[in-house]
Design a protein that fits this description.
Helices cover 34% and strands 15% of the residues. It has 402 residues and is of the alpha+beta class. It has three domains: 139 residues, Alpha-Beta Plaits, CATH 3.30.70; 171 residues, Sulfite Reductase Hemoprotein, domain 1; 61 residues, Alpha-Beta Plaits (2-Layer Sandwich), CATH 3.30.70.20. It is globular. Bound molecules: iron/sulfur cluster (SF4). The site of iron/sulfur cluster has 14 residues, from α11.
Amino acid sequence: MPKKYDTPLLDELEKGPFPSFVTEIKKAAARTEMAAAELGVLERCYREKKTHWKHGGIVGVRGYGGGVIGRYSDVPEDFPEVAHFHTVRINSIAGFFYTSESLRTICDIWDKYGSGLTNLHGSTGDLVLLGTTTDKLEAIFAEYSSRGWDLGGSGSAMRTPSCCVGPARCEWSNIDTLDINYAVTQEFQDEMHRPAFPYKFKFKTVGCAVDCNASIARADCSIIGTWKGNIAVDQAEVANYAKAGMDIQAEIADLCPTQCITYAGGKLAIDDANCSRCMHCIAKMTKALKATGEKGASILIGSKAPFVVGATLSWVIVPFIKMEAPYTEFFALIRKMWEWWDEHGKNRERIGELIIRRGMREFLEYIGVDPVPQQVKEPRRDPFWFWTEDDLNQKPWEAYTK
Ligand code: SF4
């Protein structure tokens, strides 16, 4: 029987209406010594108000540079069962569609070699297995890979790409997010398994600007489905929404970011030339409005959580690109971006931070993309000033220092 620890502080986290990670660890702790010791360490961390996990140390499997994250306890003498507590990242399925059989296989292997604790999914999107020892890593990898699973990305590498459920469950998706996610994974296998970048690089793909994967805030490259045609309006359905109590003026027209919707006499009209494809109106009136015409994606670069500089959202680099297999144009563009980042990026500098440091102009010039007016946040307030040779030779401060 695994050892039992007193956990008065952790027990507090089981109170209240929400599911508790403590309850889940306790279930695993009834079966494995590692999970039991993990509870003991965690209680001590809360009691002493400091972590007892050390991050780092190079651990991995042969032929891979990433996919396993080394974790060690700094109190191994008190908790020998978790002296090593490495994290294994499994490359998740596009859209997170698993069969129950595949989940059972994953858990059975993990029960054999690890703590039994999992995290579906980590914030990058991997299926995360928490807590094993260095000597078990090769066996774990052999078992998972023999059943068709691969490790995900970690370190200064391309990270495991993720996407929304896309056309599998959502009729509003403008692109096949699942196929793009799979194609990106296959195309950049080397970049994912052998960290060679200045820092991490994440792809996230979503079918429309509702952005169910929060790609605009979490990916170095956000691929967001969009369209070129007009928004088709079904006026009978618009009338039904009004009849059901929707305040179309306040909830739809007034919230359109470009103010291109008018609602008068019970009819809704859209000035499509000024629509920024934000999806607000369509998402609110799914029965009445539908995007039409050519479908593709906007490519955005540079979002990330706070680190060297604060959190950033992605910038639109390519407003519209066709996203159809084999995605040749898109992959070539990405390789160009990586070349520039590789050349100029400092250690642990994300591509978005490099763009801030060296300028969007240099970045766009290098990757061969023309700037567009919409990339300018606001026009200059001052009139343009044309400096002459004489202006440059003047030293106005001399008038005050004589
Ligand atoms: Fe306005 Fe957005 Fe609807 Fe376009 S998609 S009409 S910008 S609310």
